[in-house]
Amino acid sequence: MLYEGKAKKIYSTDKPEIIRVEYKDSATAFNGVKKDSIEGKGKLNNLFTSFFFELLSEKGIENHFEGKISETEHLAKKVSIIPLEVIVRNKAAGTLAKRIGKEEGFPMPFPIIELCYKNDDLGDPMLNDDHIFALNLASPDELKQIKEKALRVNTLLQDFFLGHGLELIDFKLEFGKTTEGTILLADEISPDTCRIWDAVTGQKLDKDVFRRDLAPLAETYHSLAVRIGILKNEA
Q1: CB 161, CB 230: distance < 8 Å
Q2: pLDDT along the chain (235 residues), means of 10
Q3: Could you tell me which of 186, 165, 169 has the C-alpha nearest to residue 229?
Q4: What radius of gyration, in Å, describes the C-alpha atoms of the chain?
Q5: What is the pLDDT of residue 234?
Q6: To which H or E segment does residue 142 belong?
Q7: Does the global pTM surpass 0.85?
Q8: 3 state SS of 51
Q9: How far apart are the C-alpha atoms of 91 and 112, rounded to whole Å?
């Protein structure tokens, strides 16, 4: 094992350029203050991430995904993670709604990109471009690439979810660099990292159901997977 985070374990393989990603059943919120173990969560998040990385790859978004190998595991290219959380917001929700004094669901006139320092000890503080350059977290060209890729992902995922009667409210991405310096989309894309609402009712179909004790998390994720066609409607 190379690394264990709140939701995943990362392992080396017999190929130095490939890692094995294992999803855990743990659920956390508020930087780990709230936590629980939820049976089936790891399997669902591996399913979502595998599906979305394959979808984005087909649309020309290079990412580190190499293939699903079990219900809870997939292989990925080994990258050096750029320590930035890249948040794209289409509507106000969560911390943004509080910061700007708007009701959740308030539409942004254009997608807002927020950049946070990936550091749990510091509480993942928001940074501007100058902070990023001063801390040498990414070069101006790298940051330009990251923002362009994030906006492209936003357009593709918005279109996908709208096709299923869903709204992509906001989401978090992470990026990594290969040894050759190529920037790839990395980490995961799942209801853990996205806010997804029913376009008509506003029902929340993401980790907010766990954060706010709105509904059972595994059942919510399962229903979302069925709705977007990556699971059959079975228990």
Answers
A1: no
A2: 93 97 93 86 98 98 98 97 98 97 97 96 95 98 98 98 98 97 97 98 97 96 97 73
A3: 165
A4: 17
A5: 61
A6: helix 140-162
A7: yes
A8: helix
A9: 9
Q: Under DSSP, is residue 219 helix (H, G, I), strand (E, B) or coil?
A: helix
- CA–CA separation, 185 and 124 (whole Å): 19
β-strand partners of 26: 37
Amino acid at 229: G
The answer to whether 190 and 49 have CB atoms below 8 angstroms apart is yes
* Tokens coding 56: 């984005």
Q: Are 50 and 68 in contact (CB under 8 A)?
A: yes
Backbone dihedral region for residue 60 (phi beyond 0: left; psi -120 to 50: alpha; all else: beta): left
Hey, what's the torsion of the CAs at 80, 83, 87, 93, to 10 degrees?
Answer: 130
CA distances from 75 to 14, 18, 37, 154 (A): 12, 7, 24, 24
